[in-house]
Design a protein that fits this description.
With 323 residues, this protein is an alpha+beta fold. Helix 3 links the parallel strand 4 and strand 5. The longest helix is centred in the first third of the chain and has 18 residues. It starts with 10 loop residues before the first helix and ends in a 10-residue tail after the last strand.
Length: 323
C-alpha cells in the first residue's frame, strides 16, 4: 500500500497534508500508512500517538491531575479501538511544570496514566519524563494488535452508518464549564473518562462485517468527512436519528461538531437493524448501536433534517485546532 489515506477538510488536516506531501509512502513492513487512526506494521502491530496539552485538551480547574492522566490514556487508546485492535500497552512521555516534578500533583498525574492503562487491560511499557517551562503535557503512544484492521476506507454506496453509544455529552460539559456553570455528573464523566470501545469495535468487524470505521474524537460531522474522503464516497447524516446524550442540555450542534465522544462510527452492509445485528450488539455490550446515516455516490458530508426531502451539505466539520 503506497501513499497516505485521504483526509477530510479543515486547516488542521491541510497542515497534515503539507507534512505528508512528497513523502515516499508505506515502506517495508508498513501495512497501513498515515491517514488512518493508527499505523499497522507487519504482521499485526498497531501503533498510534496522541498528545494532550494542558489548556488545550484539558484544564486542571475542570478535572484533577489523576483524572487528567487517565483521560489522556483513554483518548489515545481509542485510536486502537478505531482500528479494531486489542490493547497491548502504552508508552507515555510526560512534561511536568518545574514545581510539579516531584510534587503531589505530578505524582497524581503519573498515577492516573498507570491506573487507566491497567484498568483497560494493558501495561505501561515505558516513556520519558522531563520538565516543562509552563504547562503540563503528555504524549501517549498506544500499542495494540489486530489481524483484521478496520480502516477508514472501504465504505460503499448503499452501506449504512452506525454509531456506538451517545453523542454530545463531553462537548456540552466543556460549554457549561466555559460559561461558568455547574456541570452535571453524567456529562462531567463523559468528558473526564473516555471509554475506548475496544471489544465493541472488534465485534463490529468480526460479527457485523464493518467495512470502514473510525472513532469520533473531533465530532461526528468532521470525522464522517474523513471516512467519506478515505472511501471516495459521500455521506448523508440523518439529524432525527442521532443518539444525543440523554440530558436536556445536549444539543444537535454538540453531537455534530463538538468532539470528545470517542464512540465508534462504522459503515455496515445494509440491513443491520432487520437481521438483528444491532440488537445483538446491545445485548452483548449494554450499549446502543444506532443507525445515523447512509453512504452514497459522491463526496463530502450532508445532513438530512426532519421534514426535509433533500440533505444540505455540511460545510463545517468538527473540532479544528487551527480554526
Amino acid at each position: 500500500m503506497k501513499g497516505s489515506t485521504p483526509l477530510g477538510p479543515g486547516r488542521e488536516f491541510d497542515r497534515i497534508r503539507g507534512v505528508l506531501r512528497g513523502a515516499s509512502g508505506a515502506g517495508e513492513g508498513v501495512q497501513v500508512p498515515p491517514g488512518d487512526d493508527a499505523t499497522v506494521l507487519d504482521p499485526d502491530l498497531v501503533i498510534s500517538t496522541d498528545l494532550a496539552v494542558e489548556g488545550i485538551h484539558f484544564r486542571l480547574d475542570w478535572l484533577d491531575p489523576h483524572e487528567a492522566g487517565a483521560r489522556a490514556v483513554g483518548a489515545a487508546v481509542s485510536d486502537l479501538a478505531a482500528m479494531g485492535a486489542r490493547l497491548v500497552g502504552v508508552l507515555a512521555s510526560v512534561a511536568l511544570p518545574e514545581g510539579d516534578l516531584w510534587a503531589p500533583r505530578g505524582a497524581a498525574f503519573m498515577a492516573g496514566i498507570r491506573d487507566r492503562v491497567e484498568a483497560l487491560g494493558g501495561q505501561l511499557l515505558g516513556g520519558d519524563l522531563t520538565r516543562s517551562p509552563s504547562h503540563l503535557l503528555v504524549d501517549v503512544v498506544a500499542v495494540g494488535r489486530t489481524g483484521r484492521p478496520l480502516l477508514r476506507s472501504g465504505a460503499r454506496p448503499g452501506d449504512e452508518l452506525w454509531v456506538t453509544g451517545h453523542l454530545g455529552g463531553a462537548a456540552t460539559a466543556v460549554r457549561l464549564w466555559g460559561a461558568g456553570r455547574s456541570v452535571p455528573a453524567s456529562l462531567r464523566l463523559r468528558y473526564i473518562r473516555p471509554e475506548p470501545r475496544l471489544a465493541e469495535a472488534i465485534w463490529l468487524v468480526e460479527e457485523a462485517g464493518a467495512r470502514a470505521g473510525l472513532d469520533l474524537s473531533d465530532g461526528l460531522a468532521g470525522d464522517a468527512s474523513h471516512l467519506a474522503a478515505a472511501s471516495g464516497v459521500g455521506v448523508v447524516l440523518e439529524a432525527s436519528t442521532l443518539p444525543l446524550e440523554p440530558h436536556p442540555e445536549v444539543t444537535l450542534e454538540e453531537a455534530l461538531h463538538g468532539g470528545d465522544d470517542f464512540e465508534i462510527l462504522v459503515a455496515l452492509p445494509p440491513g443491520a437493524a432487520v437481521d438483528g445485528r444491532a440488537e445483538a450488539f446491545h445485548r452483548r455490550f449494554e450499549l446502543p448501536l444506532t443507525r445515523v446515516g447512509v453512504v452514497r455516490k459522491g463526496s463530502g458530508v450532508s445532513l438530512l433534517e426532519p421534514g426535509h426531502h433533500s440533505p444540505v451539505p455540511l460545510t463545517r466539520g468538527g473540532w479544528d485546532h487551527f480554526r
